[in-house]
Amino acid sequence: MATSGKVIRCRAAVAWAVGKPLSVEEVEVAPPKAGEVRVKIVATGICRTDDHILEGGFPDVEFPVIPGHEGAGIVESVGEGVTSVKPGDKVIPLCIPQCKECTFCLNPESNYCLKAHLSEPQNLLPDKTSRFTCKGKQIHHFLWVSTFAEYTVIPEYAIAKIDAAAPLDKVCLLGCGFSTGYGAAINTAKVKPGSTCAVFGLGGVGLSVVMGCKAAGASRIIAIDINKDKFAKAKELGATDCISPHDFKKPIQEVLTEMTGHGVDYSFEVIGHADTMTAALASCNMNTGVCVMVGVVASGSVISVDPMLLLCGRTWKGTLLGGWKARESIPKLVSSYLEKKFNSDLLITHTLPFAKVNEGFELLRAGKSIRSVLLF
């Protein structure tokens, strides 16, 4: 391509400091170095995690930064040694990489990678430099993907090549939200047919958990949120009951236990609050119940739990990207999408031009959107 090997000037949404709205700026994006790929982002979803960055919820994130981690695009150029993708390929950037070499990647039961952000910071690319500059300043990367930029540079092991027929404005959700929720039910909890489930939090990820529970054959799916505007969508996606904790005088775990006899078989916390995490744990069956932590708690949060909740046999576990091995599984999920095995499009409530990125965040904060997709 004509741009290969050259610096590209393009638009990006830069977060200059905590608590400030994003600023759409012209940035320079350097060409990819060895092992890197430069991608033209076509569409990107707005995830609650991006909002947590702007609020300062992740002390490890360095400012100024280009957020965004739920995108889809087309490879513009590749650095030396890159073999898994070529210019023109449709791709999804991955917020959990898969190097295929570390002890975690080599373990068939693990979907973590030692190159992921919990093991090494991803504010700069692996060589500890940035490919972004704006107004003469170095701009940090986020999770190595930074999809709020028209062009972004990503390590090869954090990119999945997908089917050329995939509509990028729809499958971008598979980069984070949908895959995380759907996989939490299918892979992490391994929901069994005929079981009962409770889902705390009905944002894009929580509704994806509802879809996963339904796909796994759960007979009862109880959706919980304080925003009743989410209930119609939850029922459309498979929830059998929708309840708000505000409608009860007693703790929600007691309500769920009464509704089901001995608690649900599987509960999912998709909010990221310490108190709802303990409520979700207490709401599943004391002996065989499985509680999956999906929501991201604010950095430094501490949860205190009565040990009896676990001593009786409950399982409490977390999930990252729904347990999918990213580079292998995301392309398969895209194929399943194309085969209409699930309809993640139902999560998209707003499609906005990229310039309206801050409007997309306002919709999210007001509880008026499930997923907003930004188009470049």
Tell me about this structure:
This protein is of the alpha/beta class. 24% of the residues lie in helices and 23% in strands. The chain is built from eleven helices and 17 strands. The strands form three sheets. Strands 3, 4, 5, 8, 9, 16 and 17 form a seven-stranded mixed β-sheet that branches. A six-stranded parallel β-sheet has the order 12-11-10-13-14-15, with helices on both faces. Strand 10, helix 5 and strand 11 (220-224) form a beta-alpha-beta unit. Helix 4 (177-189) packs across helix 5 (204-215). The longest helix is centred in the middle third of the chain and has 13 residues, at 177-189. The radius of gyration is 20 Å and the shape is globular. It starts with 7 loop residues before the first strand and ends with a strand. 52% of the residues are buried. The mean pLDDT is 97.
Mean pLDDT rating = 97
Give the number of DSSP strands: 17
Q: N-to-C terminal Cα separation, in Å?
A: 19 Å
Alpha-beta classification: alpha/beta
Q: Main beta sheet: strand number and arrangement?
A: 7 strands, mixed
Query: Mind telling me the C-alpha Rg?
Result: 20 Å
Principal-axes geometry comes out as globular
Strand content: 15-25%
Give the helix proportion (percent range): 10-25%
Number of helices: 11
Low-confidence segments, ≥5 residues, pLDDT <50? none
**What string gives the helices and strands in order?**
EEEHEEHEEEEHHEHEHEHEHEHEHEHE
